[in-house]
## 1
Amino acid sequence: MSTVAELQKKVKELEAQLAAVQGNAGPVRQKIDVMSSEVVDSNPYSRLMALKRMGIVNNYEKIREMSVAVVGVGGVGSVTAEMLTRCGIGKLILFDYDKVELANMNRLFFQPHQAGLSKVDAAAATLQNINPDVAIDAYNYNITTVDNFQKFCDTIRTGSLTGGPVDIVLSCVDNFEARMAINTACNELNQKWFESGVSENAVSGHIQFIVPGETACFACAPPLVVASKIDEKTLKREGVCAASLPTTMGIVAGFLVQNTLKYLLEFGTVSHYLGYSALTDFFPTMGLKPNPQCDDRFCRARQTEYKARPVVELATEVTEDLTPVHADNEWGISLVDENIPEEEDTSNLKLVDGVQVAYSVPVDSSTPESSTGGAVAASELSLEELMQQMKSM
Amino acid sequence: MVDESTKKTLSSIPLLQTKAGPRDKELWVNRLKEEYQALIKYVQNNKAADNDWFRLESDKTGTKWFGKCWYVHNLLKYEFDLEFDIPVTYPTTAPELALPGLDGKTAKMYRGGKICLTDHFKPLWARNVPRFGIAHAMALGLGPWLAVEIPELIERGVITYQEKSEEAK
Ligand SMILES: [Zn+2]
């Protein structure tokens, strides 16, 4: 007699097999041990290795040693994973807990016949078929719960091809909770990562490079939004949570992978923040310094470590990006407007025009919202007794 | 901003004090006690106002919560299962309240039946970390959501009234 756990394991295996079968309809190419720059129609890497010949990238084949974790395999994450796969990345680690749905078909990558499969299994099968040289690990769980968070941290810490930390984590999730969980993990592990996002109205997006202690972390400030030039009061939210466009998601995924490649292969300049407003084709960029009063204690610890390190040339580059892209401030947005009370400490943020915080948080958090309910007094009762009291109501 | 009655409800729920998440071991136990105290007070307030609308309980660790909420429309009581996990980043991030029974029935939900919150929720929550707890999330998030969505779902015929069956307590 099989146990539930055994049956669940069996179902998982069969689902992975089904995903593999559905993805592998046609002929499969053989694995390639060494990237060749030979230009023949059978070499999938010839055009990438040409980057080396042209002097854009010094050591393209180094990409085969690189490991990247992609958290969230939805509209942005799946395209991100496909781009990295086609670029010949060494290892991909995919995290998601969602299933493919027909409602996802306005986005790229997934196909209708994959509906019902877990996103990570379906993606792994397709990607493996596109490029069998990439090592792919797939994890089907929600990283924000206590147990899974620990597994997530362990995987980031030991998931590289050599058993060490991954080279970069890419956040392609669609919610604040998961971003905060990734932020917490990466601050604790001192792990560099990129945050990415598309607004719920589908017409703006951004990427942000986070080097713990050196650049602002996701908890250093309220979420940043690219001004979409839409009056929030006219934005109709009745009847829907979020809209999405394959275009915006594809563009953000492109920005994300482009900057990931620049970081991994050491060419060009990696943007610390790059925004995108679809309605006006506006692309603000800026550097972002960490907040010394950040809520995340590991962020503050990393900042102290970073300050203690001898200054290297790289560190001074950050301030260069602060020049506003549009010096004439055509957005008409200043940091002190009705949404942002003056007590707000955004001085350290130095936001570029066209980018603003989604909301403000008072610096002095000791003054609560008016409450007649008072504060909870220390209870004489034990937790068990309180649980029982609640249950018997 | 938030409507007056929600504001009033919100302000009558005791504020919490301990900033601790489920990874904080002993401090988390303190936080959990505060959560239960605030919830008990909130349910008492609701009963006193003849507006008793939910029950919640958690597992021993206080990270998995489940219960029921109900909504009265045209004198008929509609009841829904309610569940959520406490995320590792709690209380910096609010719990994502879910009504799994309504998953796929309304566009005002994310996967798994997580309810779509208004634009007011996150700023208000962020300004009140760590003073807001589960009771506040219920009052500010789920209460207004039910009031807007349930009548609409009933009118569209997506949910229909069901007599209480034997298995229901
Ligand atoms: Zn920070």
## 2
Amino acid sequence: MAWVLDHLDLVWSLTLTHVGLCVPPIVLGFVISVPLGYWASRSSAARSVLLTAGNIAYTIPGIALVVLVPVVLGLPILNPLNVVVALLLYAVAIMVRSAADAFASVAAEVRQSATAQGFAATQLFWRVELPLAGPVLLAGVRVVSVSTISLATVAALVGIPSLGSFFTDGFQRNFAVETLTGLVAVLVVAAVFDLILGGLGRLLMPWNRRRRLSSSAAKALSQPIPTTGRF
Amino acid sequence: MSIEFRHVRKTYPDGTTAVEDFSVTIPSHSTTVFVGSSGCGKTTLLRMINRMVDPSEGEVLIDGEPVSGIEPVALRRRIGYVMQNSGLLPHRTVLDNVATVPVLTGTPKAKARQEALAQLDRVGLDRSLANRYPGQLSGGQQQRVGVARGLAADPNILLMDEPFGAVDPIVRDELQQELLRLQRELGKTTVFVTHDIDEAFLLGSQVVILQRGGIIAQIGSPAEILAHPASDFVADFVGAKRGKRRLTAEERSAGDDVLLVDAGGYPAGVISAPDGRLILAGAGPKSRSVSNKTDQAGDA
Ligand SMILES: Nc1ncnc2c1ncn2[C@@H]1O[C@H](COP(=O)(O)OP(=O)(O)OP(=O)(O)O)[C@@H](O)[C@H]1O
Ligand SMILES: [Mg+2]
């Protein structure tokens, strides 16, 4: 405990670094996955290609990716951008499926009735389909958020600072308190992100609060969460 | 705003022919009902009017103008559409749902909402419901919102696809009466789809009985169809053959009312006959007030 109190500055700065690594992939992953997921919900061919690609990408071990990305991008191995790109790949791999399910969960009835009222195709997307896909999209982002925060610790293995540095350092020095500190910090960051996302969901989707989920949305939400934390 | 179907045919991409060859003229300012059992092509026909479905052959004309020449989105904004389970936008409040079309056509939001409040009054909804979401309403209330939304832009044409199909009989009865009242006030050219023959006779001044493939079994006023069913199919469909609608007066000393029984001997309704003399409502459709309400629809 004394160690933690002595190193609060380090804990705080590594937490900020960690958050800095995680936010871009979560946000960009969402932005990229929404159009891909929409496409997948429209065409069964696109769906099978995108989801298979996502599954394969998700199978690549994190450490292999962190080593491979700089080679592919031609960046110095210590550039944090490598980690961001690797995390983004995972984020999209998970999020495309959620986004496809999210758009599929929009009731055909509502879409048809909106068309009948005179929504043009782009208005239908922005004003009807995207908001109604919201609850399932949010569930996907929450999974991506937790998974990204956990995965980002791998960065430490290639020498890029993150909360994972507490793991590598604690391991090398055989100092459990440090490893434990890193673990708690990761959990706290994940919890805070999840609270923020939940709050955003309630703010942006007030209509969703007391509504029973349509059966297809409920099904999409109850799919097993992919396992995270691959060392 | 009369609507004319001219030899329309619809074959869907998967090869299903939903409508074979359908021609009908729908007069303006009155209600025409398409009635038939499930899958006979009612929805397909209805959606040809607002171009949700384009016919494979033939054409639909509104006041003599082919709809194929009208841009679909613009066309839909000037035609009201109400469907089963209301099809309301679950993420918008009641008021915003009602204001949908006026907002789409560029009415400022505040003004559209103000007018939407008046629409709520018109369909008998309490203004206190204005800020609720559709998921917080009963099925009957949702249908009323659906009707208010369909009328909000004051369209000349109103399309209704089994709008009362999913509510209980008592609420359905209320909604039907409400629609009759609105129709008297507004005189829209209304096309109403149902599989309930009672509903068809109650609401329609012209009733089109359909068979599979959009084939017209009979077209006419409810009185004409009841009095002269064109075929066994129609007689069966309206229930005349099974005696559901062949009512006999039974002598009863219950005040001025005479009990009517159907061919099976079951009480079907009463008719006023002060001093043993029947009150005749005059010739024409009005005499259908005799038809019984509890009878569930010649099992369409
Ligand atoms: N998009 C479609 N693709 C292929 N076939 C269709 C499509 N829509 C309808 N059909 C078929 O066309 C026929 C008529 O369908 P339609 O929906 O018009 O019937 P309906 O009279 O409205 O039936 P219901 O009372 O069940 O609503 C049915 O056989 C139906 O299966
Ligand atoms: Mg139908």
## 3
Amino acid sequence: MSEYYTDGDPVADTKAPTGPINERWERRRFTGRLVNPSNRRKLRVIVVGTGLAGASAAATLGELGYRVSNYCFQDSPRRAHSIAAQGGINAAKNYRNDGDSVYRLFYDTVKGGDFRSRESNVHRLAEISTEIIDQCVAQGVPFAREYGGLLDNRSFGGAQVSRTFYARGQTGQQLLLGAYQALERQVAAGTVELHTRHEMLELVVVDGRARGIIVRDLVTGEVTTEIADAVVLATGGYGNVFFLSTNAKGCNVTASWRAHRQGAYFANPCYTQIHPTCIPQSGDHQSKLTLMSESLRNDGRVWVPKERGDDRAPADIPEDERDYYLERRYPAFGNLVPRDIASRAAKAVCDEGRGVGPGGLGVYLDFADAIGRLGKDAVEAKYGNLFQMYERITGENPYERPMRIYPAVHYTMGGLWVDYDLQSNIPGLFVAGEANFSDHGANRLGASALMQGLSDGYFVLPNTISDYLADGPFAAVDDDHEAVAAAKAAVNDRIAFFLGNDGDRSVDSFHRELGGIMWEYCGMERTDEGLRKAIGLIRDLKAEFYKRVKVPATGAELNQQLEKAGRVADFFELGELMCIDALHRTESCGGHFRAESQTEDGEAKRDDEHFSYVAAWEFAGEEPVLHREALEFEYVKPTQRSYK
Amino acid sequence: MKLRLRIWRQPGADAKGKMVSYVIDGVSEDASFLEMLDVLNERLIADGEDPVAFDHDCREGICGACSLVIDGQPHGPQAATTTCQLHMRKYKDGDTIDIEPWRAGAFPVVKDLVVDRSAFDRIIAAGGYISAPTGTAPDAHSVPVPKADADAAFAAAACIGCGACVAACPNGSGMLFMAAKVAHLGLMPQGQPERHTRVLGMVAEHDAAGFGGCTNTGECAAACPKEIGLDVIGQLNRDFRKAAARAA
Ligand SMILES: Cc1cc2nc3c(=O)[nH]c(=O)nc-3n(C[C@H](O)[C@H](O)[C@H](O)COP(=O)(O)OP(=O)(O)OC[C@H]3O[C@@H](n4cnc5c(N)ncnc54)[C@H](O)[C@@H]3O)c2cc1C
Ligand code: SF4
Ligand code: FES
């Protein structure tokens, strides 16, 4: 192992308050320093990203009176990937009187994360969850309602209480539009300056503080330096390292990775979530995978034929020749087991040769029972838009033939390391939303990413960043400052390299190949042997990439291939770190399944004695340095998860 | 299948554009329309040519980025379907397909099939929101919203801001987009205090941004991938008349 990394000093979250868990957030808000309202307009904050985390943070910081510059690479802030979230957002409102509470949401999230997250952070998230719903309703987010006019809730992703708020299958869209509208209101008010079609390509660190970014205007190609008193990255997750994922095509790791290369620790990179209900791949042209909302598992039943190689049409397979394997293996939770368990179970039956559809990579999600029980109209009212989407993509009618689903990469729990204040180890660099590692441990519960993004952006960051900004404004930084000039030169050199390279292979062809390696060896199941192999393959492919990649046209125009080239270059380095992280963590936990560490019946087996820590990696060229942050559990005692 | 594509190529905002023909072979009927263009671009790169620029991101019909006029129809032939959700099984071997960008005065071409839709953001900034600064909200259950109103608001809020309505309109009007937002917010109790200032602000910005006027041709609703109906325009007009009368 030591051939891949070196051990460093432990790292600690020095901002985390102590005392009773339900008082910690209040204490932190009280002990953190404030910035006088009249001083706020002297402080400039860069927010990169306009998804739920970025838009909510930028809008709120603008409302508070800071001068905010906000960036996204899409043509409008409203198109950030958050727009695609379907199922819902959790909150401990207990509107259903079904036994929910802040403590229960906290407990479920710590357990769901397989005891690899921080108790303080998670409790804060659960506390804030209720305020988020209030905030969004006040903005006019059209959540689903019942006939009495009150908000509807559903149970989601294996939760035994109904705490999920939703807006049909478009919850992310409606929440993001709320944040986007708040953001545009601040643009009109002059507190936020918006820069669309701009991509951050480097972080500027001056005298140990994050002081700005280098951005490229994607339309003109101009590369400029932006200086501020603090930088917030809300740049989303890195699932696209797998090429095929449910993420939008533009999702990438560049902002986080550039910060990592400047010294920011990257935590738990190997924790990825594979979502069990996606539409299977149909051919080599496949450019992304589409998620079918998890809510489908509330009424759909998952099965495969009992016999391997049974290629009869599903309707011709009699009841007693079907294996409803989730109901069989997990009688208590049935089709609603957590995502990682459902995904691995699907892989297991396909590995046995019992999968259905092209290449045997699929399982059925069958609504026949639900249609019989509730009627077609009721099923259509609940899932009509999802069924329609499925039919558009596959050409098959799910009312008549069971859907085919297969797991796909969906979410990344890992991300830049942050303390309780959401500040990375580089002072002045804050990280929010999916881009940080903070709250979900080794596995995220359904409907909890939207909650975390909005919690970070609306409520946590605007409160914690003031403690840092209280020392500002910081000294002016000129464009010819050594650190600025170096960062800018690095960006320009990289662009010049890609455009000048005398290659013959497209960026996508490399990305697809890298994704294949990651999926094979660092996907649903990982082994020592496979990961070592993957590291070698990635290194070879990376060398090939720099030799043979071809980027047409020039840098002084809209050049989508050039954008992709930079992103894929960073994915190579990230992919290698993911494999090293997965290799060093010889236990299984949450979404990280090491074949060597399983219980007798094939469940993930944690090793708390050796791995109850956050792995925070420091960039050091080929051999990263591992800093461990020990995790302590005062309230929820680690147990082996069981969903039997 | 084998197809002939005629695609609008325009190197930059100020450059002249023209239709260019390409023949593409071996297209799978399971591929999406954009995946078909990916395949074309891979080939162009291999041949040392500049690939076709087009906007896209989610590829599942929700972000509103994709924006192609296909055989004269914004988002192509399939009703209630964005370009990215259109699949090649709609086409057959030997077809010729014309692919152009949105064409509208308020949406200048950036490159090839990519246009600048930032005018939509400016319309929202001019009033398309409810002022509710973070932290000021009452409990979510303090104001019940009748289900019918909530559902109608949701239907209007489903707009993805793609701009197909503008591309389809002979006048290049942004009325359907704007009216969808006015209806969404105006149907909710939270949206009432700013109901009048909202519609006045948004309409003024819409007109200033260079969108044309609405003459009720209905082309917008026919092209809309989210089936936003013309009724929202009726509501905008009523709100606008009331607000203008008050302001006078
Ligand atoms: C299909 C799908 C469905 C989902 N459904 C749910 C659900 O039902 N419930 C739930 O809780 N979660 C869900 N999730 C997860 C959730 O949507 C995301 O985790 C969350 O929205 C991420 O928000 P974010 O603000 O952190 O990042 P994003 O929304 O990804 O935003 C990233 C922003 O950063 C910008 N950006 C990135 N890099 C750069 C750069 N270098 N320069 C400039 N700008 C940059 C982008 O332009 C964008 O504005 C779903 C995810 C997927 C893929
Ligand atoms: S109204 Fe329809 S066509 Fe117009 S922007 Fe909205 S979704 Fe697109
Ligand atoms: S790419 Fe997002 S709607 Fe088509």
## 4
Amino acid sequence: MKAYLAVIWVLWRRDLLHYWRNRVRAIVGLTMPMLWLFIFGGGMSSSLSQGNTSLIDGISYVQFIFPGVIAMSLIFNAIFSALDTVKDKEFGFLKEILVAPVPRSTIVFGRSLGAASTAAIQATLILILGPFIGVHLTPVMIMLLLPAIWLVALALASIGIVLTALFDNQEGFQFVVNFVNMPMFFLSGALFPLGQLPSWMETVVRLNPASYAVDVMRRIVLTQQHIPLDTINRFSFTIFGHNVSAWIDIIILVGFSAVLLTLAARLFSKPK
Amino acid sequence: MSSVITVEQLSRSFRLKGRNSRTITAVDHISFQVQQGELFGFLGPNGAGKSTTIAMLTTLLLPSSGTATVAGFDIQQQRDQVRKKIGIIFQETTLDHKLTAYENLNFHGVLYGINRITRRQRITELLAMVELSDRAHSIVQEFSGGMKRRLEIARGLLHLPEILFLDEPTLGLDPQTREHIWRYIDKIRQTRSMTIFLTTHYLDEVENCNRVAIIDGGKIIALDQPSTLKTRYQVNTMNQVFLEATGHGIREDELL
Ligand SMILES: Nc1ncnc2c1ncn2[C@@H]1O[C@H](COP(=O)(O)OP(=O)(O)OP(=O)(O)O)[C@@H](O)[C@H]1O
Ligand SMILES: [Mg+2]
């Protein structure tokens, strides 16, 4: 057991070292969220607020999309860092791990923890932008957001690790990731409220893990900004006729991660 | 002497995809044994099936048929036990180019469950042996081909394997570096009775092998001591033996 954890730890540490050695990427990674917040969010806020100053009940559009932009960063970074494992396959390093006497599941857990950590660090950096768009960061909000960010990062990283088990080359992987990421982002409620959607779209939203990711973070941010629950629910969606809640989000994200990580461990254990 | 590798009727075929879709037999019912402590040369033209054989013996690839045991363990049923006993230097580099030399070795040590103190001590020793001590904390990306190869040799030895698979360990290296690498390998063989399974295209390197197998088109066509092979083909060097045994044509063309 101790040896098992040591292997997970050393794989995890390797990802963090890679991230740290490439920290320019971390700064560059902030430009996308800034574009969404300041340009897209800022522009939409001013055109939506002809006359009255907010989207609904005291929230500007840019404040509305703030949790969505954090989720976007997590979607892209967590899934994308699985590309490292595909590169390991392509450039041979994976063989060094596969020929060692370690269970295949360590690769799955080590890599998903690594991917989740780097994506979570990246997303946490976005919080710094909050005050510039009128999101008042309180210690409680941060304390609630950090574990939420980690959970969401893990759930999304588990999608990435399943995809790496299926692809041997970067091209195929990148194609599928782009194909998955964009719809996941657009249909997650990151950019628009989900209350009034056509029913086919609402079905897709319910099946999209990113919807729960956006929802849990938005609930934390808006609740801490003293926005009434009624208003928050109007931005959200329902399952089986009930409004989702932060707890439902968390349970679904935990379950989703568990299922996908188990699947990935199975896929990696299958001998060629 | 007891055999540490026993191969019986081992085969592996691949399905080629795309326009030339068909099945090729990379390794075709080969059988042989390698003795404890032997330096065993495994020769053959490009595409003969050497790396495929090594991949099966090192548990990275399942055989299509046949069986083999390595260090007494079945390569299909007892993969983890096999993995504990072997070290391998792959034909193509498998280092993490973003980590330092030390970090690469340390990573390997953790994978093999070596405790921290022993790890540190062996890493220092091995880096000294392959003359990379002063570059221990450089990123591997900055290494030359020869330095990378030396580092991989150090890594392959870190967990004290009983059997070491070397798939073209001196590929693309200059004569000086090749000589150095052979000096390390000889040193290890003297200090520990390690079995070495070697493939190479530099045939002067196999003059010192205890025995040599020649594989061509997935089949073993000769297996004996270098001196016996030279007598059989009435030539003076292993290079000539190789050409006599496998012919002068480029074999891979026939396969394609
Ligand atoms: N993953 C694979 N998929 C399809 N064919 C493969 C695969 N791996 C090997 N082959 C084929 O199997 C045959 C043997 O390849 P192998 O790599 O074992 O040769 P080798 O003896 O190591 O050659 P070299 O000296 O060039 O390294 C070749 O025809 C090769 O094309
Ligand atoms: Mg080869």
